[in-house]
Design goal:
Strand content: under 5%
CATH superfamily of the domain at 82-318 and 328-423: Amino acid/polyamine transporter I
Helix content: 55-70%
CATH architecture of the domain at 82-318 and 328-423: Up-down Bundle
Number of strands: 4
Structural class: mainly alpha
Radius of gyration: 24 Å
Shape: globular
CATH class of the domain at 82-318 and 328-423: Mainly Alpha
Strand order of the largest sheet: 1-2
Number of helices: 22
Distance between the termini: 56 Å
Length: about 575
């Protein structure tokens, strides 16, 4: 496999492209070795060409079968990236999993395992959408659900991403703070580094920088193993004790926050656009799934390691100090956790944890800000690609810069309750996730968009169960906020009824195969269901699909979700104000 960046050899690369506003999409035609080259519509011509990754290149004309193990491995190395990067445990995730271990021991370790398939299913669907359609998530929502819902989805994303990016810079400040570096120095330097690595116009160099940060986050795994070895008897005692203790009254809030930091809406927008930007097509969907599987395993290893580290080394401190002074030795923020690990285990443990938090924060900040720039480019039709330097995509890089500057400026405000802010932002992400997931499921059942790549029935049922569980958890948060004294039996009854209703409604709406159920699949490249047809079928240009037929059921469920989100947002603010007054 060639390893050079071949963008300059692509006739539609940034160096040769003219205007790339909407309507300037191109269709790739031709053949190589008797095999047809896929055709796809693109909104930015930089999205067409060779697959260029951190560890290899797949030429556009290379459509031959992978018959040897070496060729399959080289192809996987070139595709590897979006699925791994999007799964990384960022500042919010590391802080919440550390807090779960420090304040609650091993009681929430099961949630890490349960969230893994949820994460894989969601990210597989968006990766498939990106590879088959060649356009980003925001653009598909605008085209298939209309401008009204597209604007709502984009507004949700912009607000949530701005707040999430603040938590990433909180992680940067706290990670560097452990080493005595003031946030007045660390935050501006991190902001300049993030802008610099993105604006240079090289997808390969950007992805390699992300992999370097990813390696830093993986240091949490040896940290957990060493801490467990350092306190074997203590860790076993904590595991036995925490099994017998119920979750505290704020358990629902914390569970929703853990879900929000693990499966966040920004991940859907980022991965689909990043797959498109990397030029992965339907021929390489199998390798994209493997990329997501590796990322899921890394997520489980990192999250479980962060939780187990703090459960083994710090949970006894939190329990012993809880009676004196309110918070006692409980979680405050990531910097305090690193200092506590240094005191309880050794200086090396604090250093490793601080490095992990700093690395995850840098990677998370890059991905979150980039998902915003991708979405704005999708909605506006302006150039939006990491293959383009600043001078060729000023709006794309300018929006990235604006997000970074905003988040850095907020973190510089003195006196912010950083730990509580991180918790509330991730609760907000958990509340908004069901709405984003419903849009995703409906798009993945739109035959005009995905043709033979639409969801199989079993995946629709699984996705409906996931959406139902997310909505029920959010509803529990609403109930406990409005009625703090509500009994457990009533909450369980409401949860079961709500879950059954949501699963039934979502399954029924998805089963009709989307708004394009009557579309003629022959307009795509390959109309059948055979393996070869699926490998070469790509979505026709969006302009040729026509308006999807109206559906009262779809409008109703989207409207109900919108009302639910607005109510839940109000109650999250109320809950946050209560916690802030008690902080």
């Amino acid at each position: 496999m060639p390893t050079r960046d071949s963008a300059s050899h692509d006739p539609a690369s940034p160096r040769a492209a003219g205007s790339s506003r909407l309507g300037d999409g191109v269709i790739v035609r031709g053949s190589f070795g008797g095999q047809p080259v896929e055709r796809r519509t693109v909104l930015d011509r930089a999205h067409r060409g060779d697959v260029v990754g951190a560890w290899g290149t797949i030429p556009l004309v290379d459509t031959g079968p992978r018959t040897s193990g070496w060729r399959r491995l080289a192809t996987f190395a070139a595709v590897l990236g979006p699925g791994v990067i999007v799964m990384v445990n960022d500042a919010g995730g590391l802080s919440l999993y550390a807090q779960a271990g420090q304040d609650r021991g091993y009681r929430l370790l099961w949630l890490v395992i349960l969230l893994a398939p949820v994460l894989f299913v969601n990210q597989e669907m968006v990766a498939r959408l990106g590879a088959v359609t060649g356009v980003g998530h925001a653009r598909l929502i605008f085209e298939r659900f209309g401008r009204l819902w597209g604007r709502f989805a984009l507004a949700d994303l912009l607000v949530l991403n701005a707040l999430t990016l603040v938590t990433e810079f909180i992680g940067i400040a706290l990670g560097c703070g452990y080493f005595g570096i003031s946030r007045l120095v660390s935050v501006p330097l991190a902001a300049m580094a993030l802008v610099g690595v993105t604006a240079r116009g090289s997808f390969r160099h950007w992805e390699r920088a992300m992999f370097a940060a990813l390696l830093g986050t993986l240091a949490v795994v040896p940290l957990a193993l060493l801490v467990q070895a350092h306190h074997p008897a203590l860790a076993a005692a904590h595991l036995a004790a925490t099994r017998r203790r119920p979750l505290p009254t704020r358990g629902v809030l914390f569970v929703v926050a853990m879900i929000g930091t693990t499966v966040s809406p920004w991940q859907l927008f980022f991965q689909q656009s990043n797959v498109v930007d990397k030029r992965v097509t339907s021929r390489w969907v199998r390798y994209a799934r493997a990329d997501i599987a590796v990322g899921t395993l890394l997520f489980v290893a990192g999250a479980a390691a962060a939780l187990a580290t703090c459960a083994a080394a710090l949970h006894h401190v939190a329990g012993a100090g809880a009676g004196a002074g309110g918070r006692g030795g409980g979680f405050v923020d990531a910097e305090h956790t690193a200092a506590s690990l240094g005191s309880a285990v050794g200086a090396w443990a604090g250093v490793l944890f601080a490095v992990v938090v700093l690395s995850g924060s840098l990677l998370g900040a890059a991905a979150v800000a980039l998902s915003t720039s991708y979405a704005i480019g999708d909605a506006s039709g302006l150039r939006h690609s990491l293959h383009r330097p600043w001078r060729q995509a000023r709006a794309f890089h300018g929006s990235f810069l604006a997000m970074i500057v905003f988040a850095a400026a907020v973190v510089m405000i003195p006196g912010l309750p950083l730990g509580l802010l991180t918790l509330l932002v991730n609760v907000l992400a958990g509340v908004l996730l069901p709405s984003a997931t419903v849009f995703l499921v409906l798009l993945c059942n739109d035959r005009a968009v995905l043709g033979p790549w639409t969801n199989p029935p079993w995946l629709n049922v699984l996705a409906a169960v996931i959406v139902g569980m997310l909505i029920v958890l959010s509803a529990q948060l609403v109930l406990t906020t409005l009625f703090p004294g509500l009994g457990v039996p009533v909450q369980v009854t409401v949860a079961l009824v709500g879950l059954a209703g949501v699963v039934g409604a979502t399954s029924a709406l998805a089963w009709v195969r989307g708004p394009g159920c009557g579309a003629d699949l022959s307009v795509g490249h390959g109309a059948g269901r055979s393996g070869e047809d699926r490998a070469t079928w790509t979505m026709p240009p969006l302009e040729t699909l026509g308006q999807p037929p109206r559906s009262r059921g779809r409008r109703a469920i989207v409207l109900v979700l919108r009302l639910y989100v607005l109510l839940a947002l109000i109650l999250v603010v109320i809950k946050g104000m209560r916690l802030l007054l008690c902080f």
